[in-house]
Write a structure and sequence with these properties.
Layout lengths: L1 E5 L1 H9 L5 H12 L3 E6 H14 L2 H12 L3 E3 L3 H8 L6 H12 L4 E3 L12 E3 L1 H7 L5
């Protein structure tokens, strides 16, 4: 089963049903629910998602959504090693560097994000949700 790392923006597209982006995100989550794909996010993403949802809705609603989200994704650790690699990297954005190295340390080859330009320093396969889905096959 293919494992993919979702950047926070793709998860929020799905949760918030953001116009233009929600359909592709929903397909990715549907593939996960059907056990055709394994979605992973970082512990940093979970924190950021909770923060954003708390501001848009309420803390209680945000926590309920986080619990539901945990049934659809696995959470990749952000460790001291992850932070050190991010701090020493050429990534412009520190958060993106953390996401990249969390995925790398977990052995995940794919990062799915809408912010492709933020991952130009990545050694992983970085694709938009649309790009990923257009090349998705069950046997890879």
């Amino acid at each position: 089963m293919k494992r993919v790392f979702l950047d926070t923006n793709v998860v929020l597209d799905f949760i918030l049903k953001r116009q233009e982006f929600a359909d592709d995100a929903a397909i990715i989550f549907d593939l996960s629910e059907r056990k055709e794909l394994k979605i992973e996010v970082s512990s940093l993403s979970m924190n950021n998602i909770n923060y954003i949802l708390s501001k848009l809705q309420s803390k209680n609603v945000a926590r309920q959504i986080i619990v539901k989200l945990l049934s659809l994704v696995d959470v990749t650790d952000v460790t001291k090693s992850t932070i050190k690699k991010a701090a020493m990297s050429d990534f412009i954005d520190f958060e993106d560097a953390i996401q990249n190295f969390a995925a790398e340390e977990a052995g995940i080859r794919y990062i799915i994000t809408r912010n492709l330009k933020d991952f130009t320093k990545s050694s992983l396969i970085v694709q938009s949700p649309q790009e990923f889905l257009s090349g998705f096959t069950l046997d890879s």
